[in-house]
Amino acid sequence: MLLYIHIPFCDSKCHYCAFNSYTTKFNLKKDYMKALNIQLKHDLENYCKDKTLETVFIGGGTPSTIKIEDYEETFKILENYIDKNTEITSESNPNSATKDWLQGMKNYGVNRISFGVQSFQENKLKELNRAHNAKSAITAIQNASCIGFDSINCDIIYGFKTDTFDNLKEDFSLAFSLPITHLSAYSLTLEEGTKFFNKSEVKIDDEELSYKIFDFLENNGFSQYEISNFARGKNYHSKHNFGYWQHKEYLGVGAGAVGYVNNQRYYPNKDLDEYIKNPTSYEVEELSNDDIKVEKVLLGFRCILGVELSVFTEDELKRVNHLIEEEKIYIKDKNVFNKNFLLADEISLYILE
Q1: pLDDT single digits (tens) 91-120
Q2: Least CB-packed of 23, 235, 272, 297 within 10 Å?
Q3: Is the pTM for the entire model greater than 0.90?
């Protein structure tokens, strides 16, 4: 069982961000954490009885906008559901992840930290509406390492209008010089509800750029294990993300989180005020076996996990064999693997047509 905890507060709203987050209503932070703890306790007692959580992931929004003492009750609730093997990740932003905040999270048991850096270029940070600068990003990563975090992720966005391979190399090279063990390189997407939506001029569609970035990261010791994720070694892979790709069950706690238990996806209230009033009121979506199969195939081809041959019908296996002949995919140990993660969706749709 995995656990995702959503913190929906941000100092500023990035122009590309479609996640459920608020740059106002900071006066509700304490009430929100109380409500979150009510839902956390409820979900753990109902869905995680006598089980140990494999992973905990605190995301957002910006988890570092919540004071360290306001997490105390949350981690107290988690005590009986985690052990020394539980991967506990928290996202953070360089402008709010102070040394004291990072130390506090380490003391609570967080053993993996992820920084939303996105770029070390000042102009790009401003245009993305990031609330930090390059210097604060560097300092935050260095502080995390000094405190004792040995599993540190850095997010970088590429595909913005000012990006070239040369200036992206500078971003990545600076990241390599820091004590990070994992790098998430996300291609900019223009999602509905964001400031960038309908502004196609801010995005570069350049598949060749993606391939150059992947090769550059690989040549500098960061191996790709999913379309956007790269690590210095297998021991630094995100266990939490792997759990999603393996279609494991997960709890979703917080306004705008999503959970998946017993072939059902459940959604706590996205509206902050409504969530605080009733944190255990969920919308529930039933997933059919076909739904689950499609998700397993799409996710499996996006990463190094691959897809079990046994999930495919006879007709689908014919299309699998055709793609093998075309050298797009290959079979090993009764699993089908994708050679090119960028083609994951096309491969999946072709096989499942």
Answers
A1: 999 989 999 999 999 999 999 999 999 999
A2: 235
A3: yes
